[in-house]
Amino acid sequence: MTTARIGLLPALLIAAAVAFAGWSVGQGVERFRMADRTVTVKGLAERDVSSDFAVWTLGFRRAGNDFASVQQGLSEDRSRVVAFLHEQGFSDDEIEVRPLQVQDLLAREWAPQEIALRFNGSGQVLVKSARVEAVGKAANGVDPLIQAGIQLDTEQNGFSGPRYQLRGFNDLKPGLLEDATRNAREQAAKFAEDAGAQLGELKTANQGVIRVLDDDGSDMDTGRTPGKRLRVVSTFEYALQ
């Protein structure tokens, strides 16, 4: 009779372990240690927020065989761009004008013998503003500049729109971590209840890395979308009583 009881206990422990393994697959429970009666859980928190700052670079370029005419054309283009931004309601404090650049392609050490247009010039005007919606609206209304003959430039990846930033990240951080902590504790409490135990004190905590993502499903922050998604996965270890 004694031998039967001894064999039954390991069988029950194995059955309980298998059942827990299956349950924990779909839960946030990361680790459960029977020896010191602790449970480790992961808390997930996500928030959709809006950018609070935008930087828009309006690049333009000209090319020709006469240095003076290229420079003059760039100067006129720059004036038109600045005037356009003023019409959109941006102040001088929100507008940054960069110096014009004109390059003599024949002056380069390994320049080819025949060049269609000798001088290649470019200029940039930047908008830096906390009025994110105003920047986005202006970026969608550049047709008058194109109609005026201004050749707007694009970045190397073909993107020419505003770059949206989240400068108030630190103000949002505490609330996000609070959500992750609450989520983890709920999971730990549920596990303790199912295990017939009581949730004890918090033993260790790792807040994890808060990631800022585009809200279009991207797994990174490219700066192209005014909407952002904040995500954090924090790890907590609780004692069980």
Account of the 3D structure:
This protein starts with a helix and ends with a strand. The strands form 2 sheets. Strands 3, 4, 5, 6, 7 and 8 form a 6-stranded antiparallel beta sheet that branches. Strand 1 and strand 2 form a beta hairpin. It is built from 5 helices and 11 strands. The relative contact order is 0.21. The protein is α+β, with helices and mostly antiparallel strands and 241 residues long.
Q: Can you tag this structure with a few keywords?
A:
UCP029033; alpha+beta; six-stranded antiparallel beta sheet; disordered N terminus; SIMPL/DUF541; 241 residues; five-stranded antiparallel beta sheet; 26kDa_periplasmic_antigen; SIMPL domain-containing protein; single chain
C-alpha Rg, in Å? 30 Å
Give the mean pLDDT: 86
> Could you give a short account of the major beta sheet?
6 strands, antiparallel
Helix content: 25-40%
Q: What low-confidence regions span 5 or more consecutive residues with pLDDT below 50?
A: 1-6, 9-18, 21-26
The structural class is: alpha+beta
What is the topology?
Blueprint: H1 2-24, E1 29-33, E2 38-50, E3 53-64, H2 67-87, E4 95-97, E5 101-104, E6 119-129, H3 132-139, H4 143-147, E7 152-153, E8 163-165, H5 169-194, E9 199-206, E10 211-214, E11 227-240
Antiparallel strand pairs: 1-2, 2-11, 3-6, 3-7, 3-8, 4-6, 5-6, 9-11, 10-11
InterPro entries: 26kDa_periplasmic_antigen (IPR052022), SIMPL/DUF541 (IPR007497), UCP029033 (IPR016907)
Protein name: SIMPL domain-containing protein
Pfam families: SIMPL
